[in-house]
Input
Amino acid sequence: MTAGPGVLVVLLVLVAACTPTEVASDDPAEGPAVSRTDDRPNEARTIAYGDGPEQVADLLLPPGAAPEAGWPTVVLVHGGFWRDQYRRDLMADLAADLAARGLATWNVEYRRVGPTGGGVPETLEDVAAAVDHLAEVAADEPLDTERIAVAGHSAGGQLALWLASRGRLPDGAPGGEPGLRPCGVVAQAAVASLVDALELGGGAVADFLGGRPDEVPERYALADPVALVGHGVPTLLIHADGDATVPLDLSERYEAAASGAGDPVELVTGPGDHFAVIDPADPLWATAVDFLDRVC
Output
């Protein structure tokens, strides 16, 4: 995706290189980062979107002056089976790559299963709030809120697909009534069908939802991407055919469901393992960038 009219991309964002005179800060109270007019990389700035310590995201702006409408933005959502030990640094390389391509990135942290207090609904509430908070960030930073996209890996792919489908949620549901609607979503080796992923990750899905489908069916109805198709957001599923962590058939099941509901969805596969899709040098990532440029 390029910086011309068309995309504010939502994906998870991490820290780029800092200059000796400018140090990235984790203090949301500090002043906004300044978009430089030279070619040096900007530093990432951590911004709170809520009151909790995990409710933060890293904003990284491209070098140089912003377009008149502001930077298109990608929201990055990391994976790790929704568990506490995994953090947004998993998406750091993609954030740097996108910034070099002229895209702002918003690398989201969120409450996860474990001591941070995540799961359903807390994790869903966090990622929804993180996306909607970009409207406030854009009051101080040069972001084009008409051009937001989302990219997520693994469990973050489930969250990315869920973010695209928030308009399908019933009134009063966690994350319902979205403030910002993505122009496109990239699901990277996504846990795209929760019911079909119950045996993965040592019971990670049941831990995330607080039970199995027969125990908490209402939570699966609110969180499972295949239950929320028909959202109309252009969607790219990328999945390595050698992925032994999240099987390719989960993306295939989602593609079939979304196509049947009339959603514009594509599935692209290639060689590699579970992490090939978050390698900026991998052809599957190039496919993702091309897709975002096309649809946003």
